[in-house]
Amino acid sequence: LAASAREDGKSDFVPFRNSKLTHILQESLSGNSKTVMIAALSPALSNLDETLSTLKFAQTCKNVATKAVRNQETSASIAEELTAEIARLKEQLAAQNDSRLQQQLHDTEQLLAQMEKDYQAQIAEAREMEALRKQALCDMGLSLAEISGALGMDRNVPQLVNLSDDASLTGCLVYFLPEGEPTTIGMDKECTIVLQGVGMQPHMCSLLNEDNRIVTLQLVDVAGA
């Protein structure tokens, strides 16, 4: 791997099984991943040989280049792949009548039909849950118009509404953006909207509502400046 990275990048056979270490690191060194290596060294003179061996191995690993690609598979991309596969199988059947190809085409068409059916069922279920949620809020006197009135807000005031993979949780949080007042967002308790979780910063951004027509987003650094 190191030699091919230094030369022309051609992919030759790499004997990973020749070493237990390289066999364990096979996916990290040649797979679809971003790899970070930490070399543990010892300052003791008695460990000089092991330290030099570790440094040489780390130097070699620095020459290995991995190209990580984000794995993204959506329903639309899978459907496109299945459609392309069906077209390819039909072309092969047109050239030669093979029972194995016919069975493979039939299975692929069934899989595509089932996937589209499941996708439509998910959309229908999400819409049904959204309708039930709105009805429940209205029954409890928590419709958006009533919330606006209870807080003394014009219903035309811009709002932030949460989204969730669970349709029943979408819209459960509503944040109004008062006119002319900056709405700060971050993990700090002094922020208008306090968020908790991994990667949250004390001060991340502020929103300014201008005449209920324009909302300006301004990013801030971690110090809140």
Q: Short description, anyone?
A:
The chain is α+β, with helices and mostly antiparallel strands.
What is the fold's blueprint, element by element?
Blueprint: H1 2-6, H2 20-24, H3 26-30, H4 48-62, H5 75-95, H6 99-139, H7 144-150, E1 159-161, E2 174-176, E3 183-186, E4 193-194, E5 205-210, E6 214-219
Parallel strand pairs: 3-4
Antiparallel strand pairs: 1-2, 3-5, 5-6
Helix pairs in contact: 5-6
Secondary-structure element series: HHHHHHHEEEEEE
Average pLDDT for all residues: 76
Radius of gyration: 29 Å
Percentage of residues assigned to helices: 40-55%
Gross morphology: flat
Number of strands: 6
Report the end-to-end length measured between terminal Cα atoms: 46 Å
Strand order of the largest sheet: 4-3-5-6
Major beta sheet, specifics? 4 strands, mixed
**Helical stretch tally:** 7
Beta-strand portion reads: 5-15%
Structural class: alpha+beta
Point out poorly predicted stretches. Answer: none
Describe this structure in words.
The structure is a single chain. This protein is of the alpha+beta class and 225 residues long. The chain is built from seven helices and six strands, in the order αααααααββββββ. Strand 5 and strand 6 (214-219) form a beta hairpin. Helix 5 (75-95) packs antiparallel against helix 6. It starts with a helix and ends in a 6-residue tail after the last strand. The model has no long low-confidence stretch (mean pLDDT 76).
